[in-house]
């Protein structure tokens, strides 16, 4: 189905099931432990062996020798695979590090061997017996040191052009009466998802089945086939349940490839789960940034010049952290400039993490907006309102399909009690606590991607949906079921959803906040075909047929839906494809984050006290799971603001705190009352569902709102994340 004109009315607009807060249909499976994840597929795999991955002990250099004799002779060992014995492997993704190192080493904990044994304990013990000698080389591990020589990255993909310019930024900034020129930094971040990167591999002759924790099934099949140099049709990926991804499982990683290699070498199915330190150093992470923001404005509070430059680092062939993208779109200003530079670093690969680009970019931009508002003597909300725009500022001929940023701020200010904020920092106290309020805009683009599905109707009136779409804990099973139920006039208990299998039609996959809107639109398209087939089978005029309460109705005639399949199952398949609407109109999601914090006057301890997110993100398909997405994102934003940082040993090129003991993330005690408001919005230019995405919007701006609240509470302005007590304690006002 081609979607190239704004949708008017369609069956989804009935809102009998879509748009209602609905319990997850997969919830009982997860709460009873019967939802099987990648490492737990003993239901379909018999007599599996266990693989243990050995990571490199250096960050850069070469393996000079490797003694495997003791490992091979250890009890229970079935196979040991290294780069020497794996056969020729291709690098499937030019932006990814080699998944099996040797002799060259690209980063610390790069996989150099997998030991396969009868038990996990035997595999782990044998791996410790491998003796590897290295010749270490000097590596580049410090972004700040490499910043001045960092070149311009290549254009392409989601990065687009690395540099943009409109008007005369330099001249307008120089002549602006009120200016800000500030530098901000964000550290490397880890995904730290609950389920590790894990895979179970099994060969049937030359055919590979891989049960793996992966967000993008079709991408994964392609990468596995290219890496192992086998035809794509010989690879099947299965990933029905994923215990958290956040972008870290967009791409095939070492667990999948080494499980396949280990299974081939051992002649047995093999399970592999990366140990936590290897997840931090072997898989992808959010790279650190250094960002310079310049804003010039007149005394009327209107931005005359806005410039945003960002430096990040990556392995050779990698991509930059696109931290300037939101600045190209979020605020008005006739004279504009953005630039990205990419330093070559020998740290583990930097790649997508929840809201890549906007999440770290707004950590800087939304502090800068507050700093500028203070220089202008304006309320931070008023400054943002004065610089709102209803068109793409770099391409004014492209209006926004929907843009309710100002309304998000208005609703949020009223609900949060923003009028009680004292504009002078350090003036509000609650006992020993200094109390402050902070705000930040939220922004994330709406990306449109082709997505397909297959639907089956049986004689009992049950509709089964099949698509390779994945559910990474976001509620995808449920919104797909809601879509099919709405389209076919059925209750949810008459819908079966099957996800995460490469034998199903290719979907959008889970990533980039595009999953919900695109995958449900693909199901919509398939259901349109099914409705047509049912009407034809029953001899109804499909133009005026209605589907409701398990019945098909046309004029004075009606029949049970299942009757259409009385002679056999009816199957329909289609995909949603998009025309030029995304080119003629800028499609984005917007929001506003409000935060209240307390800062201890004696210790500088920071406590988040209240949080509110107001989101305008098109039709909300399931408010219950959408709220869950947003409060989870808000929690991640608190982590980014106050604690999360991969500490780099700049001598050895290692993330030192590479486990959940050393890498701090928020716990329940860190998170106070959270409130989420969704504006009543539909975007007919987005898709037949009139929806967008919200899972990444919920993190964008949160960290800056926390930082701005800390400044309002204490007068301590910190531009280098995370904001830890040592960075503010010397700036606190004297205790009166």
What features would you describe in this structure?
Helix content is 23%, strand content 26%. The protein has a 7-stranded mixed sheet. It is of the alpha+beta class and 736 residues long. The N and C termini lie far apart (68 Å). β21 and β22 form a beta hairpin. 56% of the residues are buried.
Question: In terms of topology, how is this protein built?
Answer:
Layout: E1 2-3, H1 27-31, E2 49-55, E3 61-67, H2 69-72, E4 77-82, E5 104-105, E6 111-117, H3 120-127, E7 131-136, H4 143-146, E8 163-166, H5 169-175, E9 178-186, E10 198-204, E11 207-212, H6 217-228, E12 235-238, H7 254-266, E13 270-273, H8 276-282, E14 289-297, E15 303-314, E16 335-344, H9 358-376, H10 380-386, E17 391-392, E18 395-399, H11 405-416, E19 429-430, E20 433-445, E21 451-457, E22 463-467, H12 476-488, E23 495-499, H13 515-538, E24 546-548, E25 551-554, E26 557-560, E27 570-578, H14 581-584, E28 588-600, E29 606-616, H15 623-642, E30 648-649, E31 654-655, E32 673-678, H16 702-714
Parallel strand pairs: 1-27, 2-13, 11-12, 15-16, 22-23, 29-32
Antiparallel strand pairs: 2-6, 3-5, 3-7, 4-6, 8-16, 9-14, 10-11, 10-13, 14-15, 17-18, 19-20, 20-28, 21-22, 21-27, 24-25, 25-26, 28-29, 30-31
Helix pairs in contact: 9-10, 9-16, 12-13, 15-16
């Amino acid at each position: 189905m081609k979607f190239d004109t704004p949708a008017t009315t369609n069956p989804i607009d009935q809102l009998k099931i879509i748009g209602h807060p609905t319990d997850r249909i997969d919830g009982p499976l997860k709460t009873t432990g019967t939802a099987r994840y990648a490492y737990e597929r003993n239901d379909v795999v018999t007599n599996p062996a266990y693989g243990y991955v050995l990571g490199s002990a250096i960050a850069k250099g070469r393996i000079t020798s490797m003694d495997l004799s003791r490992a091979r002779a250890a009890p229970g060992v079935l196979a040991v695979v290294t780069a020497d014995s794996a056969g020729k492997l291709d690098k499937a993704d030019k932006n990814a590090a080699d998944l099996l190192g040797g002799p060259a080493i690209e980063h610390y904990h790069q996989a150099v061997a997998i030991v396969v044994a009868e038990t996990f304990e035997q595999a782990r013990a044998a791996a410790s017996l491998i003796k590897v000698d290295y010749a270490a080389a000097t590596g580049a591990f410090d972004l700040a040191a490499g910043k001045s020589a960092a070149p311009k990255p290549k254009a392409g993909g989601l990065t687009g052009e690395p540099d943009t310019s409109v008007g005369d930024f330099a001249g307008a900034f120089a002549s602006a009466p009120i200016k800000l020129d500030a530098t901000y930094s964000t550290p490397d971040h880890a995904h730290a998802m609950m389920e590790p990167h894990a895979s179970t591999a099994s060969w049937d002759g030359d055919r590979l089945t891989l049960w793996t924790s992966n967000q993008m099934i079709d991408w994964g099949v392609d990468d596995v086939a290219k890496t192992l140099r086998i035809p794509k049709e010989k690879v099947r990926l299965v990933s029905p349940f994923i215990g958290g991804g956040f972008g870290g499982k967009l791409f095939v990683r070492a667990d999948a490839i080494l499980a396949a290699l280990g299974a081939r070498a051992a002649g047995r199915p093999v399970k592999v789960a990366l140990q936590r330190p290897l997840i931090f150093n072997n898989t992808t992470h959010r790279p650190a940034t250094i960002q310079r923001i310049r804003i010039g404005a007149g005394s009327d509070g209107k931005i005359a010049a806005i410039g945003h430059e960002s430096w990040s680092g990556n392995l050779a062939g990698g991509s930059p952290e696109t931290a300037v993208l939101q600045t190209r779109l979020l605020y008005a200003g006739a004279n504009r400039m953005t630039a990205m530079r990419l330093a070559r670093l020998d740290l583990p690969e930097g790649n997508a993490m929840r809201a890549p680009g906007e999440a770290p970019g707004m950590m800087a931009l939304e502090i800068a907006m507050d700093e500028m508002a203070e220089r202008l003597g304006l309320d931070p909300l008023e400054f943002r309102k004065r610089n709102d725009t209803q068109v793409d500022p770099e391409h004014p001929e492209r209006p926004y399909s929907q843009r309710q940023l100002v309304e998000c701020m208005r609703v949020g200010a009223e609900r949060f009690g923003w009028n009680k904020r004292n504009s002078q920092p350090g003036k509000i106290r609650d006992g020993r606590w200094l109390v402050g309020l902070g705000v930040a805009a939220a922004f994330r683009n709406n990306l449109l991607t082709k997505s397909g599905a297959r639907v089956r109707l049986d004689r009992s009136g049950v509709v089964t949906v099949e698509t390779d779409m994945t559910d990474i804990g976001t509620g995808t099973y449920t919104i797909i079921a809601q879509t099919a139920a709405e389209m076919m006039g059925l209750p949810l208990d008459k819908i079966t959803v099957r996800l995460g299998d490469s034998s199903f039609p290719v979907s959008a996959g889970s990533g980039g906040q595009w999953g919900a809107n695109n995958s449900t639109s693909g199901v919509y398209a398939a259901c349109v075909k099914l409705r047509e087939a049912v009407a034809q089978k029953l001899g109804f005029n499909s133009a005026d047929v209605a589907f409701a309460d398990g019945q098909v109705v046309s004029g004075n005639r009606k029949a049970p839906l299942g009757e259409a399949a009385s002679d056999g199952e009816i199957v329909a398949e289609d995909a949603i494809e998009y025309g030029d609407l995304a080119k003629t109109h800028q499609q984005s999601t917007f929001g506003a984050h409000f935060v209240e914090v307390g800062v201890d006057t004696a210790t500088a301890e920071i406590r988040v006290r209240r949080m509110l997110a107001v989101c305008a993100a098109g039709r909300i398909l399931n408010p219950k799971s959408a709220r869950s997405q947003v409060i989870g994102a808000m929690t991640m934003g608190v982590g980014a603001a106050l604690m999360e940082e991969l500490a780099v040993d700049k001598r050895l090129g290692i993330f030192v705190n590479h486990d959940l003991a050393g890498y701090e993330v928020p716990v329940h005690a860190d998170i106070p009352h959270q409130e989420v408001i969704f504006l009543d919005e539909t975007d007919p230019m987005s898709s037949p569902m009139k929806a967008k995405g919200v899972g990444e919007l919920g993190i964008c701006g949160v960290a800056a709102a926390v930082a701005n609240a800390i400044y309002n509470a204490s007068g301590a302005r910190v531009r280098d994340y995370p904001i830890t007590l040592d960075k503010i304690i010397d700036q606190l006002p004297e205790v009166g």
